[in-house]
Specification:
The protein is of the alpha/beta class. The protein folds into two domains: 315 residues, ABC transporter type 1, transmembrane domain (ABC transporter transmembrane region fold, Up-down Bundle), CATH 1.20.1560; 239 residues, Rossmann fold (3-Layer(aba) Sandwich), CATH 3.40.50. It is 64% helix and 10% strand. The strands form two sheets. Strands 6-7-8-3-9-10 form a six-stranded mixed β-sheet. It has a four-stranded antiparallel β-sheet with strand order 2-1-4-5. Helix 2 packs antiparallel against helix 4 and helix 18 packs parallel to helix 19.
């Protein structure tokens, strides 16, 4: 994220749109702050009658000042309480709105987001930074509003008490303003750098959590520990710089306040010798003057937390603004037939110096099963991933039922495509909700799909049947069970086009047999695109497309391709002993 050079007011305006409501809470908060600020000068105001009439002349009611003090502090406490509660409601309501918008962005954003941002960074932004940023900003606004009003109320009291002395107090503000302004820009930059460093730290942790087996197997613990120590040290130094800049404001403010207070006391002593200022007036003025120090101190300290809060919220807003939503067409129809046409289709990724697929021309008939084979990196997965528009072609076109995929409404297009891959994602929800994910729920249909996917026996063993919670990514399920669950999900969706992306890889023979049986039932009557290595999957395909370096080098049926003795023949012979290609 680039450094934000906008003023505090501009940044507040940017972030404040999420915290405008509920409006009644703002009214309650402002009312509470006004009550607190009005109560502040009443305390020094009581000193004048207390000293002049209570101690000097003795004609003051003995209960008046104690009762007044109790009343003032009760009123002040009530005002402070309702202001804090109201602002807490505003903060949490704002966080709710921001998180809902962020999650909506996750569901609709371009796939570029997932290649540029780590899961840890996204989670940190959505959960931690929004909450921390809102709390810091709203608490800072509470301090700013309450102490600004208190400062004005005390200044009004001091002017009323002795306007000449207040001129000396006024000398404090230009120096204070200059101090705050000088530190604001530095704090903003340091806070941004600290948060960026935190993201890198979170990503390092995420990598080590996800890849703990590989790291230990490779003996890379020390290397990763050194890397983490370096990132942690960088984060520590940045936070220390930010805290130093923030902490410097308070002592400077207090020194300026002490200088002004000393000047006021000296001037008041001189003044008392010339115009007969009473002890009560002087005590009331000095007390009011001393009470100025607290709000001035709070206002000087509010810059750091406000900067940190705004920086966190700006990251969330930047996250939403940086990545555009996916854009599709508006074309919808009834259920598609499944005719797929690739015409001179090429895909080049920005980070690659050569195309992933080049000049693909291929027609797949409705209901046809087509297998894509080739070495790793040949472009097989890229070729099928352009269909649901996870990837956009750099040139050429792809049509389904004679309509370009760009013209289809994205929701409709993806509803027409089912997918089973080697990486099965299972939600932390019931088995039933996992099967009918995104579709109209029908428990009987879900049970039939599970049985067709060879999971009927396993279903009967579950303690709560189809309503059993499968847990985070179904860690207790075997690889074969996860694959069959994905097949049941695809059966339930009942799409006319099916993509099988290495759906039987890394399975033992028995699991592979059960999965293959389920896949045969699933693919019946559908246009099926298979990316696979297993010979058992490829041999029965209606058409085999052989790819090499992003191009189609040959295509045909299994027996015909073997007779040609080209690349497919070579791949078949090199892998036939392991039943893989």
């Amino acid at each position: 994220m680039t450094e934000n050079t906008n003023s505090i007011s501009a940044r507040l305006k940017l972030c404040g749109k999420y915290f405008k409501s509920p409006q009644y809470a703002w009214f309650v908060a402002v009312t509470g702050m006004v009550i607190v600020s009005v109560c502040e000068p009443l305390v020094p105001a009581l000193l004048k009658p207390l000293l002049d009439k209570g101690f000097v002349s003795g004609d003051l009611n003995v209960w008046l000042v104690p009762v007044a003090l109790i009343g003032i502090f009760i009123t002040r406490s009530v005002g402070s309480f309702i202001a804090q509660i109201a602002l807490a409601k505003i903060a949490n309501h704002g966080v709710l709105q921001m998180r809902l918008k962020l999650f909506d962005k996750l569901l609709k954003t371009d796939a570029k987001l997932y290649s540029e941002e780590s899961a840890g960074s996204i989670i940190n932004t959505m959960i931690h930074e929004t909450q921390a940023g809102a709390n810091l900003m709203v608490n800072s606004l509470l301090t700013l509003g309450r102490d600004s009003l208190t400062l004005l109320a005390l200044l009004a009291f001091l002017i009323y008490t002795n306007w000449q002395l207040i001129v000396v107090v006024g000398l404090l503000f230009p120096a204070l303003f200059w101090t705050i302004r000088k530190t604001t820009n530095r704090l903003g930059r340091l806070n941004q750098e600290s948060l960026d460093s935190n993201d890198r730290l979170a990503y390092a942790i995420e990598e080590n959590v996800l890849a703990y087996r590989e790291i230990r197997l490779q003996g890379a613990q020390k290397q990763q520990a050194d890397r983490f120590q370096l990132l942690s040290t960088q984060t520590f130094r940045l936070f220390m710089k930010a805290m130093t800049a923030s902490a410097l404001i308070t002592p400077l403010t207090q020194i300026l306040s002490a200088l002004a207070l000393s000047a006021v006391i000296s001037f008041a002593l001189i003044q008392s010798n010339t115009n007969g200022t009473t002890v009560g007036e002087f005590a009331a003025f000095v007390t009011g003057m001393l009470m100025l120090v607290a709000p001035i101190k709070h206002l000087s300290e509010v810059v750091g937390p406000m900067n940190r809060g705004l920086t966190s919220l700006e990251r969330a807003i930047y996250f939403m603004d940086r990545y555009p939503n996916e854009r599709g067409g508006s074309y919808r129809s009834n259920r598609l037939n499944g005719l797929i046409e690739y015409t001179s289709t090429s895909v080049t990724f920005p980070e690659m110096d050569h195309p992933a697929i080049v000049d693909i021309n291929l027609t797949i008939q409705p209901g046809q099963t087509v297998a894509f084979v080739g070495a790793s990196g040949a472009g097989k997965t890229t070729l099928v991933n352009v269909l649901p528009r996870w990837i956009s072609p750099s040139s050429g076109s792809i049509k389904i039922d004679h309509v370009s995929i760009d013209q289809y409404d994205l929701e409709f297009l993806r509803h027409q495509i089912g997918m089973v891959s080697q990486h099965v994602i299972v939600m932390n929800d019931s088995l039933f909700n996992n099967v009918c994910l995104g579709q109209i729920p029908d428990k009987n249909k879900a049970i039939r799909c599970l049985e067709s996917a060879n999971l009927g026996e396993w279903l009967m063993q579950l303690p709560q049947g189809i309503d059993t919670i499968v847990g985070h990514n179904a860690s207790k399920l075997s690889g074969g069970q996860k694959q069959r669950l994905a097949i049941a999900r695809a059966m339930y969706k009942d799409s006319p086009i099916l993509i099988l992306d290495e759906a039987t890889s890394a399975l033992d023979n028995e699991s592979e047999r059960l999965v293959q049986e389920a896949l045969n039932r699933l693919s019946s009557g559908r246009t099926t695109l298979i990316v696979a290595h297993r010979l058992s999957t490829i041999e029965k395909a209606d058409l085999i497309v052989v790819m090499d370096k992003g191009r189609i080098v040959e295509k045909g049926q299994h027996r015909d391709l073997l007779e040609k003795k080209n690349l497919y023949h070579t791949l078949f012979n090199s892998k036939s002993n392991s039943d893989e290609i």
